[in-house]
Each structure stands twice: as structure tokens, then as C-alpha cells.
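[Discussion] Sanity-checking designs against the backbone

I'm trying to build intuition for which residues belong where. Below is a C-alpha cell string of 170 positions. I'd appreciate it if someone posts a full sequence so I can compare it with mine line by line.
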């Protein structure tokens, strides 16, 4: 995959719990910290205490290949028990800037609302970030760089979904 292809990744899982239980987990930004291999810590910014469109939160991430980095995300979409989406943005542009990446959870009720299909995905946004800079410095390795990052993200998404499932079904 190349940057021009609009890199994205997503996975889904069926959870033996109603959408309201799953929603309570995925709309709580601290849930991903418990299950993601990269996301280490999150906190609401600017006095926000929970998700609402436009609210921002900070994150601290780490992995063996990239080291540690910090992010700022802005809630971009919120439909109770259906969709939770946030955009990773540049800190100085957090109110109006273009996204570096867009992350989503989408819930679908199953079996009359007693179970939930949960999709979690990410796509690169339109803002220029560290991944684009790295590809620009190593253009001959673009496909390997993008494929490697998407594979690592897929693993993190799968781990997060598995953790949400375990919590929701407990």
C-alpha cells in the first residue's frame, strides 16, 4: 500500500453483550489504554470530562519500533450506541486542524439487541505527519513502511477489540 492509496485498517468482533454495555466501554477513552499495545495513557483536555463532539484529549503512546510519542485527539463523531470517532490532530491546530488519522468504533446490534458487532478502524487523514515525513526520506521503501505500520495497527486494533469483548462479556 502507498500513501496515495489512503491507508486504512479495520477489524470487527462479535460481543455477547448489548450495545449499551459495549458503548459504555468504547466511549470511555481509558478503555483502550487497558488493551492497546501502543496507547499508554489518556487525559481529557480543556476542562472536558467526557466525550462530546469537539472535545479533545491527550494521549501518550509507545512501541519498540517508534519509541514514545504524544498525540492530541478531537472527538469528531458521536452517535449514542452507534458511532464514536476521533481525529488525531496537531496540538496547535486541535480545534480546527486537519486530521493526521481518523479512528472509529461502530456498533451494530445483533440478536435483538442482546449482542453487538463492534468494528474498530483507522484511516490516515489529510494532514502531514511523521509517517509522511519518514516515507519522504525513504521513498524506495514506501510500501514496506506503510504495510508495516498498518500491520502493527491491525495487531493493536485486534488486541483492543479482544479486550473490549472480555470486559463487556464479564
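Best answer:
Here's mine. Compare freely.
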Amino acid at each position: 500500500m502507498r500513501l496515495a492509496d489512503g491507508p486504512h485498517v479495520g477489524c470487527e468482533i462479535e460481543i455477547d453483550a448489548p450495545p449499551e454495555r459495549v458503548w459504555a466501554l468504547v466511549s470511555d477513552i481509558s478503555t483502550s489504554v487497558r488493551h492497546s499495545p501502543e496507547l499508554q495513557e489518556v487525559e481529557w483536555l480543556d476542562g472536558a470530562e467526557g466525550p462530546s463532539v469537539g472535545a479533545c484529549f491527550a494521549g501518550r503512546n509507545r512501541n519498540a519500533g517508534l519509541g514514545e510519542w504524544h498525540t492530541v485527539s478531537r472527538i469528531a463523531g458521536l452517535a449514542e450506541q452507534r458511532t464514536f470517532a476521533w481525529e488525531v490532530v496537531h496540538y496547535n491546530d486541535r480545534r480546527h486542524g486537519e486530521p493526521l488519522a481518523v479512528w472509529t468504533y461502530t456498533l451494530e446490534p445483533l440478536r435483538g439487541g442482546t449482542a453487538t458487532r463492534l468494528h474498530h478502524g483507522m484511516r490516515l487523514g489529510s494532514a502531514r505527519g511523521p509517517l509522511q515525513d519518514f516515507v519522504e526520506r525513504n521513498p524506495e521503501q514506501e510500501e514496506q513502511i506503510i504495510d508495516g505500520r498498518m500491520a502493527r495497527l491491525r495487531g493493536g486494533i485486534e488486541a483492543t477489540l479482544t479486550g473490549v469483548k472480555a470486559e463487556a462479556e464479564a
